[in-house]
DNA sequence: GTCTATAAGCTGATAGAC
DNA sequence: GTCTATCAGCTTATAGAC
């Protein structure tokens, strides 16, 4: 690394600049997802993002043209994860195992990225104004595919005759709830704050409660 | 009505003034819950509330001292409904009927008051900063009571050995999801917008999917 | 790439005439 | 009770020196 001459480094696209850019952008995004998730789009200020990122406000604007650009970048990042877990749902797999893996992965990823999960939930709660047409279409396509797998299981007599669409809604609702509405869950479980063990319990209870 | 003299009416506390106050306050609250639910606390402006209420901004301040006061009043209103539906869960009732009534009422009330439901979900999503200590305690008490009823059913062998706390979380998560994340649900069901029939389907599918 | 200074506009909230 | 006019403060975003 740092094989460039001083002259080259001062020009654009050098290794150093690239690394600084990557580090600063990552820091800004990491801080932003946390702030947006707890204070919303309008409640979050660029000054605050700059302060918590350890950068002057003008530098935040150097990396992202507007506040909305930061928000949209985060939407795109989170969006990629929406369907990643759905890869477990394949018609050739054993239903119990596939759904078990899916539920456990959903719960674990929302636990590990709680701010991201809440951020996305907030966006959906407000109607998903920042979601592009393509992103919406992609969600529909992925969902339809997963439903087709369940329908095949039903046709083969390996799964109860439930509407797969409502079945997935139920899974999403339940797995998201633990991370997104943690204060309610903690109050219900009568614990000061949620730990990994609570999420593990949740996975087992969900799988036990669903009739399949 | 209107039994007062003109002189009395001009003083404070008259029927007319009371009626005007009630009407204006109700209008402000009705408009506010819709705006807060789609734009959040900081994204909603008093000017906008005033405009959509058909009042000058100063009049909104005449009825509510601050923006937070409007928000808190709404929280209190919604809060009363949280446990109202839980009255169905009583140990002497038949589990299937009690839970069926509960799920159906939850879905129907969230459908009819979707803005209110989303408003409260948004507040919980952000950690419930506006919830008072007393309100939190009340939630815990009501939940504990409902769990006790389920535990009695289990002890009597009328209900599967599930953790009642996770069971209720699952019910809340699922029933709330349809109103709160309507765009996702509509996309999944492949309908342009949700109708009453979709909520009715949801109730039956949820009850069919849960193993009890 | 970094940072200070500042513009331009909007916000919550109030004063005070009617 | 109603409404106009206004303030003080904070916001996003930019200009321009280093």
From TrEMBL, chains A, B:
Organism: Hoeflea olei
DNA-binding region per UniProt: 45-64
Keyword DNA-binding recorded: yes
InterPro entries registered for this protein in UniProt: Homeodomain-like_sf, HTH-type_TetR-like_transc_reg, HTH_TetR, Tet_transcr_reg_TetR-rel_C_sf, Tscrpt_reg_YcdC_C
UniProt protein name: TetR family transcriptional regulator
Keywords: DNA-binding
GO MF annotation: an example: transcription cis-regulatory region binding
Domain HTH tetR-type intervals: 22-82
PROSITE patterns linked to this entry: HTH_TETR_2
């Amino acid at each position: 690394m740092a094989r460039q001459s001083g002259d080259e480094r001062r020009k654009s696209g050098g290794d150093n600049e690239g690394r600084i850019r990557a580090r600063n952008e990552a820091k800004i995004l990491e801080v932003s997802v946390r702030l947006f998730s707890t204070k919303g789009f309008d409640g979050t200020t660029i000054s605050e993002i700059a302060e918590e990122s350890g950068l002057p406000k003008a530098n935040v604007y150097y990396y992202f043209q507007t506040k909305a650009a930061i928000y949209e970048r985060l939407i795109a990042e989170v969006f990629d994860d929406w369907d990643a877990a759905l890869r477990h749902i394949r018609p050739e797999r054993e239903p119990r195992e596939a759904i078990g893996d899916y539920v456990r992965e959903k719960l674990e990823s929302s636990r590990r990225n709680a701010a991201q999960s809440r951020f996305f939930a907030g966006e959906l709660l407000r109607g998903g104004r920042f979601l592009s047409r393509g992103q919406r279409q992609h969600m529909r396509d992925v969902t339809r595919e997963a439903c087709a797998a369940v329908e095949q299981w039903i046709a083969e007599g390996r799964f109860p005759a439930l509407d797969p669409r409502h079945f997935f809604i139920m899974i999403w609702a339940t797995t998201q709830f633990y991370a997104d509405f943690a204060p309610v869950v903690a109050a219900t479980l009568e614990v000061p704050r949620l730990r990994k063990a609570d999420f593990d319990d949740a996975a087992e209870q969900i799988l036990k409660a669903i009739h399949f």
